[in-house]
Amino acid sequence: MSRFSPQAVLLVDGYNIIGAWSCLKKTRDTAGLEAARCELIEALTSYSAFAGYDTQIVFDAQYQNTCSNREIITELLSVHFTDFGQTADTYIEKVCASLRSTIAQSLISRMIVATSDRPQQLMVQGYGAEWMSARQLCYEVQASVCRARQKYKSGKQSNTRFLANSIDAKARQRLAELRMGFK
Fold first, then answer.
1. 162 part of a folded domain
2. 121: domain range?
3. How confident is the prediction for the chain on average, in pLDDT?
4. Is 3 part of any domain?
5. Which residues contact 136 (CB under 8 A, 6 or more apart)?
6. Is residue 1 part of a domain?
7. pTM for the whole thing?
8. Is residue 106 pLDDT above 70, yes or no?
9. 28-39: average pLDDT
10. What pLDDT band is residue 107 in, cutting at 50, 70 and 90?
């Protein structure tokens, strides 16, 4: 089975987004950081599938003595925890530098970095990446949910296509009686 070719690569600074989205901040403050991470992953799983983006959510492991870790959530979404002492910013910069040649070879069309960190924004734009603010990402995720609902609703068959649904209840009852053999 051949791998789906994504429209773009979306790199997300996970903790920056959690700190910027009010719903995720609330989850972080009430249920903890792990719950906020899960909520972000869930939101971006659907968004990635709908937008066709190869999404990589990056979380710092800067203050934890752990090795880097990558979890593949779906074909289009993975979660990366950086090495001890490495920030999400430096990880994202390295990925942007390595993907720069991929864009030049036209293997992918776009590279997008979602963060509200101004210095990070300037750095990744130097590598040819597009920048998306946390607020813009939130808007895009919400809009994709609305578009998916519309697509789902338009795919459902209308009840008015059946003759029985377009006649009044008394006539429908009489037809049912005739069908069952009652007089």
1. yes
2. 8-180
3. 83
4. no
5. 114
6. no
7. 0.76
8. no
9. 93
10. low
The predicted structure's pLDDT at residue 77: 94
Structure tokens at 86: 């490495």
The two three-digit tokens of residue 122, written as one number:
């300037």
SS (H, E, C) 34-61: HHHHHHHHHHHHHHHHHHCEEEEEEECC
What pLDDT does 159 receive? 55
Q: What is the average per-residue pLDDT within 114-119? A: 90
CA distances from 141 to 9, 10, 36, 130 (A): 16, 13, 16, 17
Which residues make beta-bridge pairs with 78?
56, 72
Number of domains in the chain: 1
Distances from the Cα of 20 to the Cαs of 24, 57, 133, in angstroms?
8, 15, 9
CA distance 161 to 167: 12
Identity of the residue numbered 103: I
